Amino acid sequence: MSKPISKDTTVLVVGAGIMGAGIAQIAAQAGHTVFLYDTKQGAAADAKTKLAKTLDGLVSKGKLDATAANQAVERIQAISDLEKATNAGLVVEAIIENLDVKRGLFKQLEVLLGKEAILATNTSSISVTAIANGLQHPERLVGMHFFNPVPLMKLVEVVSGLQTKPEVAEAIFELSKAWGKVPVHARSTPGFIVNRIARPYYAENLALLHEQAVQAHVLDACLRAVGFRMGPCELMDLIGLDTNYSVTRSVYEANFFDKRYVPSAVQRDLVDGGLFGRKTGQGFYDYREGASKPEILGFTPTSVPAASSVQVHGNCAIAQRFVQTLTDAKIPFTHATESAWTGLSIDAAQLRLTDGRPASQTGKEVAVFDLPVSTEQGQPLAFAVSNRASAEAADYAAAWLRVLGFNPQQIADSPALIVSRTLAMLINEAADAVQQGVCTEAGADAAMKLGVNYPAGPFEWLSRWEAGKVVQILDNLDAFYRGERYRVSPWLRLKAWQEAA
């Protein structure tokens, strides 16, 4: 029904905002004639002028050939009437996120364009199936979801609605590669891949803030230590708390108010107060002139606390790391390789890797520490102390964590702490997406690394952890909070049973 898309295919981009202009740029640079249209008078012409300046800037920096830049600009035609683009073989819509407006546009385009033209929507959250409802040929509508800034971000989610023809989705998949992007197939479900799987990165840390378990700058430091470029609070401030809150509400409502996606009262209060982050000068942090951002204290090595006996428990990579550290420091110890838990016992005290239970549930003289994903010396690492422990327990636990090479950050006694809780929920959400046919494991990993710059994909984290350990974390979270939020994905539980067999 659709011809293959080649460089000879004329592309119509509807919407001359940041996303539309970026799409027009990469299409023109790939050799296509591009019509750029916007309902606002002069917006398309202004976008073309700005684009020419952007490309000139790349030329001056030696990042783009001058001839190629000029040719790309010449290929873009700003139009004020859609009827001038009737020969377009592909339209990419990048307008307001409103279902009725998008439907109306595609009904209009369906009449104007040839029957073989492919209709693509850049929607980030609206159902492709719903947008196609009412079209004469819904099978030729497909999602082509770019990420901002379009020229730099590699990911394109190719989203199929219930009636999208497989050959249409495949044509857009191949075109995305020709435009220098990395496409991933997705089924049209709320949030698609990235906006769905990413929800726990915000939600779990907002939940910790709501419980007053930790401060924003400590959360951010601990997650940057895992490899995230920005912590969740920094990232929400950059995105805009209003925008992030709106997406969260959209996913929550589209999933029939599933408690896993429930919005946060902390975020709602900031939005209600007009504190949207960087764009308003205040959010989780203060960006106004003269304001300073709080930071954690730097790592300071410590002398070895007095102890009659030290024992390493467990035989996993973390336990082996502790064995090596103590050996290098010439600290006498024994090693209980068959222990059911990982960590250290120092005289009567225990320093345990979290299994999702609070320290207070685990014992009296007990501190629990977070999952140390990185091997970097001095990385920030959250820990918590049992509410039954002695007054000096926190200082003692912090001292031993420094001996082991960490920069300890004490938080309230919360189940699964920060990193373990966040990664377990990201993995769980990705597992559900695969279970429901939204994407493949490889697609989920590529989408999260390329769409939101995660240091690893959820299934890459899972391969370095154990499915059984992740399930244990989630089950203990579920037992503590007793709600729907932490239910384990069937895919993940089956994976854990398979690994244990």
Helix vs. strand class: alpha/beta
CATH homologous superfamily title of the largest domain: NAD(P)-binding Rossmann-like Domain
For the largest beta sheet, what order do the strands appear in spatially? 3-2-1-4-5-6-7-8
**Rounded Rg:** 26 Å
Mean pLDDT across residues: 96
- The CATH topology label of the largest domain is Rossmann fold
Record field, number of beta strands: 15
The first-level CATH class of the largest domain is given as Alpha Beta
Anisotropy-based shape: elongated
Largest sheet: 8 strands, mixed
The residue fraction in helices comes out at 40-55%
> Which architecture name of the largest domain does CATH use?
3-Layer(aba) Sandwich
Low-confidence stretches: none
Helical segment count: 20
Beta-strand share of residues: 5-15%
Please give the domain count.
3
Between the first and last Cα atoms, what is the distance in angstroms? Answer: 49 Å
